[in-house]
Amino acid sequence: MLLVLCVDLDDDLGRKTGFSTPVIGRDPVEEAAVALATADPEDSDVNVIFQGLHVYDDLTERDESVEVAVVTGNEEDDVSANREVGDEVDTVLASLSTAEDVTALVITDGAQDESVIPIIRSRVPIDGVRRVVVRQAQNLESMYYTIKQVLDDPETRGTVLIPLGILLLIYPLALIGSALELPGFVLGTTSALLGLYLISRGLGLGDRLDSAVERGRRSLYAGRTTLLAYVVAAALVVLGGVSGVNELEAVRESAVGDAGALATVAALVYGSIQWIAAAGVTTSLGQITDEYIADTLEWRYLNAPFYVLSMALVLHAVSAFFLDRVDVTYLATALTAGTLLGIVSTLAFAIVESRFSDSDDRDARRPESA
């Protein structure tokens, strides 16, 4: 028996007419086709169903064993729609009362619906696939689906979109520094915006931003202190940047001539390091708090605040030395103290973790009293 399967991947039939799918049999399929054509005459799935009826009638006149059915997916993602189609194909096959081997002829309206063919083939052998499209737009849907696939595939997307975006940025970059008239400004702005959009799509920045927002939302609802710690740390980093710039201005005013590159970096570090260290301690304490609440805290995690303080002490002393704020003795003392602070904290928490681990192991091996 040949099963003529009309595929409606996005379930236009069910959404627009209220028909329950799958639709099996010549008369029910014709009723569904008329209902869909009445609800939306421009829907391409109308052509698919009528094509299925045409094939059914043609094969019936040849006295061949044939059945026609309409299966649909849903308007969600492709994976969910394909699974829905597979379930409906199983329902259709279970309803066929025949001892003959069943094969299928799949009728679709374009390349997107044909993505479900592997799902159908896993359930019934396929004799052929027939695509029904409007003659005036024969390749339009295939072109759209191909472009959509390129934009959705991470590897192809990065290979195609990133170079194209860089090329579009060349034109506005070439106009920088020259007098721009209105047409050139508009074209340059448009090219820059389009180039930045293509690069962001190629790098998947939109998906990453959505993931970051979703993680932040879940952290907020879960009451995680890390989110609050990151907000406070960001504010502290900004304050550190302002403090570093103020320190740099003070160094330039007191310097004779222009401040060198080394003095500039030292001034920025000297003015901002205490704020950045406070931000690092804040984020590490927030992470430690969340780990403790989740009962996943390990002793070595407690090293993080001490490491931050150790590095901050070293950087503060080095930058102060290059600004002639301290002498060599202070620098050597600070370097030694910072190094010892990191080493002592590491050893201390390692010993504590080892002791607690050994104690837990002994408790686990200790036999229970009768």
Give a description of the structure:
Keywords: Membrane, Transmembrane, Transmembrane helix. Pfam families: DUF373 (PF04123). This is DUF373 family protein. The protein has a five-stranded mixed sheet, sandwiched between helices. It has 370 residues and is an alpha/beta fold. The chain has 13 helices and five strands. The chain folds into three domains: 140 residues, no CATH class; 50 residues; 143 residues, no CATH class. Helix 5 links the parallel strand 4 and strand 5.
Architecture blueprint of SSEs:
Layout: E1 2-8, H1 12-17, E2 23-24, H2 26-39, H3 44-61, E3 66-72, H4 78-95, E4 103-108, H5 117-121, E5 126-131, H6 140-152, H7 154-174, H8 182-203, H9 205-222, H10 225-254, H11 261-293, H12 303-322, H13 328-365
Parallel strand pairs: 1-3, 1-4, 4-5
Antiparallel strand pairs: 2-3
Helix pairs in contact: 2-3, 7-8, 10-11, 11-12, 12-13
Q: Largest sheet at a glance?
A: 5 strands, mixed
**What is the chain-wise order of helices and strands?**
EHEHHEHEHEHHHHHHHH
What's the structural domain tally?
3
Please count the beta strands (DSSP E, at least 2 residues each).
Answer: 5
What is the average of the pLDDT values? 82
Estimate the global geometry from the Cα principal axes: elongated
Number of helices: 13
Approximately how much beta-strand content do the residues carry?
5-15%
Distance between termini? 72 Å
InterPro entries: DUF373 (IPR007254)
Keywords: Membrane, Transmembrane, Transmembrane helix
Transmembrane segments: 158-176, 182-200, 221-242, 262-285, 306-323, 329-352
Protein name: DUF373 family protein
